[in-house]
Specification:
The protein is of the alpha+beta class. The chain is about 40% helix and about 25% strand. It has seven helices and seven strands; from the N terminus they run H-E-E-H-E-E-E-E-E-H-H-H-H-H.
């Protein structure tokens, strides 16, 4: 395990028991994660709140906004600084902002959300903990609580057939493999992402074309020199 991603990898996948689908509002269809799981997984990875991780509320404010289908909406915003302790040293502050609706007035009248402050703080902690990898598999779209989802093409490595084609072109074009790998910013062909496959093929085909062109030019030069000797 990479030391730099050790924390990330230890907190990235939430169990299905703490997940639920959001069915209403702008986030309908997204996955909700029970806040308490975030705090538990951070405690398992770093230690109790206040000892291995902590946060400080730095500011809070209210805003009133005109919204479609409503007369007025009032939201509370909370800004926090989040900290983790690594090797007995506190990190720099990781800032995050959370919000929640505290008052909305519509055709049904005015309603106050008594949990708005707590919801805004929970939202801020959710935003902050994303930065260290908490529930990353959900936000990356790689886990739905039951099974790992297939990665998009942009996140996949080249397959065996693509690997075979590249090796064939490297050989036929006479390309310097080390220079080719440097050009693609990788150390070995197995690290080539599928999204960069067309770039690799174009580069090698260009090299092959140059090689054929040089070979053709040499043949012409030889024919001309032979004619000169006969004369």
């Amino acid at each position: 395990m990479n030391e730099k991603t050790k924390l990330w990898e230890s907190v990235q996948r939430p169990p299905s028991s703490v997940l639920s689908e959001i069915t209403e509002g702008e986030l309908a269809g997204s996955t909700a994660i029970k806040p308490q799981w975030r705090y538990k997984i951070l405690t398992e990875a770093l230690g109790p709140c206040g000892i291995g991780w902590k946060y400080e509320i730095t500011s809070e404010w209210l805003t009133s906004t005109e919204v479609v289908g409503a007369t007025d909406s009032q939201n509370i915003y909370i800004k926090i600084d989040f900290f983790i302790k690594v090797k007995n040293k506190w990190s720099e502050a990781i800032p995050a902002i959370g919000s929640a609706q505290i008052l909305i007035t519509d055709v049904q009248g005015s309603r106050i959300n008594s949990d708005a402050y707590k919801m805004a703080l929970t939202d801020a902690l959710s935003v902050a903990t994303k930065m260290v990898g908490v529930a990353a598999d959900i936000y990356l779209g790689e886990w739905d609580g039951t099974d790992y989802l297939p990665k998009p093409v942009s996140d996949q490595y080249i397959d065996a057939e693509q690997m075979k084609e590249i090796k064939k072109l490297i050989k036929s074009s006479g390309a310097d493999k080390e220079l080719f790998l440097d050009y693609l910013d990788i150390k070995k062909l197995q690290e080539l992402m599928a999204k960069n496959y067309p770039i690799a093929i174009r580069s090698l085909n260009s090299k092959l074309k140059q090689k054929k062109s040089k070979k053709k030019s040499k043949k012409k030069s030889k024919r001309k020199s032979k004619k000169g000797v006969k004369k």
